[in-house]
Amino acid sequence: MMELVTLQAVEMNATDVHLVPKHDSAKVLFRLNGELRQMMVIPLSAHESMVARFKEEAGMDLSGNQRPQNGGFGLYYDEWQGDFRVASVGTTWGEMMVIHLLDRSNAPLSLDALGLDTPSLAARGTHCWSDPPACCWSPDQRVRERAVPSTRHWPS
Protein backbone atom coordinates (compact mmCIF):
# COMPACT_ATOMS: atom_id res chain seq x y z
CA MET A 1 0.00 0.00 0.00
CA MET A 2 2.86 2.39 0.84
CA GLU A 3 4.46 1.84 -2.56
CA LEU A 4 1.17 2.51 -4.32
CA VAL A 5 0.67 5.81 -2.49
CA THR A 6 4.25 7.03 -2.98
CA LEU A 7 4.41 6.15 -6.67
CA GLN A 8 1.00 7.69 -7.33
CA ALA A 9 2.10 10.87 -5.53
CA VAL A 10 5.28 11.06 -7.62
CA GLU A 11 3.41 10.46 -10.89
CA MET A 12 0.80 13.10 -10.05
CA ASN A 13 3.48 15.65 -8.97
CA ALA A 14 2.05 15.96 -5.47
CA THR A 15 4.02 18.05 -3.00
CA ASP A 16 2.50 16.51 0.14
CA VAL A 17 0.76 13.32 1.16
CA HIS A 18 -1.48 13.44 4.25
CA LEU A 19 -2.61 10.29 6.05
CA VAL A 20 -5.48 11.29 8.33
CA PRO A 21 -7.19 8.74 10.59
CA LYS A 22 -10.87 9.10 11.45
CA HIS A 23 -13.00 7.06 13.86
CA ASP A 24 -13.79 4.27 11.35
CA SER A 25 -11.42 4.79 8.38
CA ALA A 26 -8.53 6.93 7.18
CA LYS A 27 -8.17 9.44 4.38
CA VAL A 28 -5.24 9.71 2.00
CA LEU A 29 -4.92 13.28 0.72
CA PHE A 30 -2.50 14.68 -1.88
CA ARG A 31 -1.55 18.34 -2.21
CA LEU A 32 -1.81 19.06 -5.93
CA ASN A 33 -1.24 22.63 -7.15
CA GLY A 34 -1.59 23.94 -3.60
CA GLU A 35 -4.92 22.23 -2.95
CA LEU A 36 -5.48 19.19 -0.73
CA ARG A 37 -7.48 16.54 -2.60
CA GLN A 38 -8.82 13.32 -1.17
CA MET A 39 -7.41 10.42 -3.17
CA MET A 40 -8.76 7.42 -1.29
CA VAL A 41 -10.35 6.19 1.90
CA ILE A 42 -8.73 3.14 3.51
CA PRO A 43 -9.55 0.98 6.55
CA LEU A 44 -7.80 1.85 9.82
CA SER A 45 -5.87 -1.43 9.74
CA ALA A 46 -4.33 -0.50 6.38
CA HIS A 47 -3.61 3.00 7.68
CA GLU A 48 -1.73 1.62 10.70
CA SER A 49 0.42 -0.68 8.56
CA MET A 50 1.15 2.12 6.08
CA VAL A 51 2.16 4.49 8.90
CA ALA A 52 4.44 1.79 10.32
CA ARG A 53 6.11 1.29 6.91
CA PHE A 54 6.68 5.01 6.42
CA LYS A 55 8.11 5.29 9.94
CA GLU A 56 10.42 2.35 9.32
CA GLU A 57 11.67 3.83 6.03
CA ALA A 58 12.14 7.26 7.63
CA GLY A 59 14.15 5.90 10.57
CA MET A 60 11.54 6.88 13.14
CA ASP A 61 10.71 5.12 16.41
CA LEU A 62 8.03 2.52 15.69
CA SER A 63 6.95 2.16 19.31
CA GLY A 64 6.44 5.83 20.06
CA ASN A 65 3.14 7.14 18.76
CA GLN A 66 2.35 9.50 21.65
CA ARG A 67 4.91 12.14 20.72
CA PRO A 68 5.53 13.98 17.43
CA GLN A 69 8.34 12.55 15.28
CA ASN A 70 10.25 13.56 12.15
CA GLY A 71 12.30 11.56 9.69
CA GLY A 72 13.08 11.15 6.03
CA PHE A 73 14.22 8.88 3.24
CA GLY A 74 15.21 9.07 -0.42
CA LEU A 75 13.62 7.42 -3.42
CA TYR A 76 14.60 6.81 -7.03
CA TYR A 77 11.79 6.09 -9.49
CA ASP A 78 12.62 6.02 -13.23
CA GLU A 79 14.06 9.50 -13.88
CA TRP A 80 12.69 10.93 -10.64
CA GLN A 81 14.99 11.42 -7.67
CA GLY A 82 13.63 12.80 -4.47
CA ASP A 83 13.50 12.96 -0.74
CA PHE A 84 10.54 12.33 1.50
CA ARG A 85 10.30 14.32 4.74
CA VAL A 86 7.98 12.52 7.15
CA ALA A 87 6.26 14.00 10.22
CA SER A 88 3.80 12.18 12.46
CA VAL A 89 1.72 13.09 15.47
CA GLY A 90 -0.64 10.99 17.56
CA THR A 91 -4.36 11.72 17.44
CA THR A 92 -7.42 10.20 19.10
CA TRP A 93 -7.90 7.59 16.35
CA GLY A 94 -4.28 6.88 15.46
CA GLU A 95 -1.25 8.62 14.02
CA MET A 96 -1.66 11.41 11.52
CA MET A 97 1.22 11.65 9.08
CA VAL A 98 2.37 14.24 6.57
CA ILE A 99 4.94 13.29 3.93
CA HIS A 100 6.54 16.16 2.01
CA LEU A 101 8.01 15.24 -1.38
CA LEU A 102 11.17 17.09 -2.41
CA ASP A 103 12.06 16.62 -6.08
CA ARG A 104 15.85 16.60 -6.45
CA SER A 105 15.78 15.87 -10.18
CA ASN A 106 14.43 19.35 -11.05
CA ALA A 107 16.17 21.34 -8.34
CA PRO A 108 18.25 24.33 -9.48
CA LEU A 109 21.83 23.65 -8.47
CA SER A 110 23.55 26.94 -9.26
CA LEU A 111 23.02 30.46 -7.96
CA ASP A 112 22.85 31.68 -11.57
CA ALA A 113 19.82 29.42 -12.07
CA LEU A 114 18.21 31.16 -9.07
CA GLY A 115 18.76 34.57 -10.69
CA LEU A 116 21.71 35.59 -8.51
CA ASP A 117 24.33 36.79 -10.95
CA THR A 118 28.03 37.10 -10.17
CA PRO A 119 28.15 40.93 -9.85
CA SER A 120 25.38 41.00 -7.24
CA LEU A 121 27.08 38.21 -5.31
CA ALA A 122 30.41 40.04 -5.40
CA ALA A 123 28.74 43.26 -4.22
CA ARG A 124 27.15 41.36 -1.33
CA GLY A 125 30.51 40.05 -0.10
CA THR A 126 31.77 36.71 1.07
CA HIS A 127 30.38 36.95 4.62
CA CYS A 128 27.15 35.38 3.32
CA TRP A 129 28.94 32.07 2.97
CA SER A 130 30.64 32.21 6.36
CA ASP A 131 27.55 33.39 8.27
CA PRO A 132 24.30 32.61 6.35
CA PRO A 133 21.85 34.08 8.89
CA ALA A 134 23.54 37.47 8.54
CA CYS A 135 22.96 37.47 4.80
CA CYS A 136 19.80 39.36 3.86
CA TRP A 137 18.66 39.29 0.20
CA SER A 138 16.21 42.16 0.00
CA PRO A 139 15.65 44.68 -2.78
CA ASP A 140 14.38 47.13 -0.14
CA GLN A 141 17.24 49.17 1.35
CA ARG A 142 15.26 49.81 4.57
CA VAL A 143 15.08 46.07 5.27
CA ARG A 144 18.82 45.67 4.69
CA GLU A 145 19.57 48.55 7.08
CA ARG A 146 17.50 46.95 9.85
CA ALA A 147 19.08 43.50 9.39
CA VAL A 148 21.31 42.79 12.35
CA PRO A 149 24.23 40.47 11.64
CA SER A 150 23.95 37.23 13.56
CA THR A 151 26.67 35.94 15.84
CA ARG A 152 25.67 32.34 15.19
CA HIS A 153 28.20 30.38 13.17
CA TRP A 154 27.08 27.62 10.85
CA PRO A 155 29.29 24.54 10.56
CA SER A 156 31.18 24.35 7.31
Description of the molecule:
The structure is a single chain. The two termini are 40 Å apart. Residues 140-156 have low confidence and may be disordered. This protein is 26% helix and 35% strand. The chain has five helices and six strands, in the order αβββαβββααα. β5 (80-91) and β6 form a beta hairpin. It has a six-stranded antiparallel beta sheet, with helices on one face. The radius of gyration is 20 Å and the shape is elongated. The chain has 156 residues and is an alpha+beta fold. It folds into two domains: 2-103, Beta-Lactamase (2-Layer Sandwich), CATH 3.30.450; 108-150, no CATH class.
Strands, total number: 6
Calculate the terminal CA-CA distance, rounded to whole Å: 40 Å
Radius of gyration: 20 Å
Mean pLDDT: 76
Total number of distinct structural domains: 2
Helix-strand pattern: HEEEHEEEHHH
> What is the name of the CATH class of the largest domain?
Alpha Beta
The assembly state of the depicted protein chains is single chain
Please give the order of strands in the largest beta sheet.
3-2-1-6-5-4
Which structural category fits the helices and strands?
alpha+beta
- How much helicity do the residues have? 25-40%
In short:
By secondary structure, the protein is of the alpha+beta class. 26% of the residues lie in helices and 35% in strands.
